[in-house]
């Protein structure tokens, strides 16, 4: 009986489409189905439902309780009523809303992920150490954290998935994932959630656990 359902599962188009098919079956006919996808086409997700005019992108930045931004993305058939209801809900949450057309990566990740990918290329080709790459971007461009540290925070598997979506959706080789990013994901080095990514967090986590005992 929910008026709006916000999907926030794994960043896989096939998995999301399967869920949207099920949501379309169980949600009331007037319900809005929103996706927290950070890169996947809303139009294609909507095609899995019988209500494409009520499907919309509602991309919360990570972590949602802290970050002020919500990126709203209209699919090809998203209605004005769906858009305005979703925008009003985001504003009730105290968020600042930006609106994107339904192109791969939308606004934030269209810009952010190539920067992170380029940081991996700089590390891969030996331009600088990971520490100097991150320090350069923090102090040189006033970013709160460096791109490699941010990648670890987001999850390297998520970064890789988004780069693949950008490359497939925009058809430009400049979006090809850096081989080092691919290698880290293949090795299970996914970032903070696994304890190791570009940086190794395992010793610090173990020290925290020991301090609690």
From TrEMBL:
This protein's record includes keyword Oxidoreductase: yes
A GO biological process held by the record: fatty acid metabolic process
InterPro entries assigned to the protein according to its UniProt record, in alphabetical order: 3-OHacyl-CoA_DH_CS (IPR006180), 3-OHacyl-CoA_DH_NAD-bd (IPR006176), 3HC_DH_C (IPR006108), 6-PGluconate_DH-like_C_sf (IPR008927), 6PGD_dom2 (IPR013328), NAD(P)-bd_dom_sf (IPR036291)
Catalytic reaction equation(s): a (3S)-3-hydroxyacyl-CoA = a (2E)-enoyl-CoA + H2O; a 4-saturated-(3S)-3-hydroxyacyl-CoA = a (3E)-enoyl-CoA + H2O
Domain of life: Eukaryota
Keyword Oxidoreductase: yes
Family label: In the central section; belongs to the 3-hydroxyacyl-CoA dehydrogenase family.
Protein's name in the database: 3-hydroxyacyl-CoA dehydrogenase C-terminal domain-containing protein
Annotated organism of origin: Salix viminalis (Common osier)
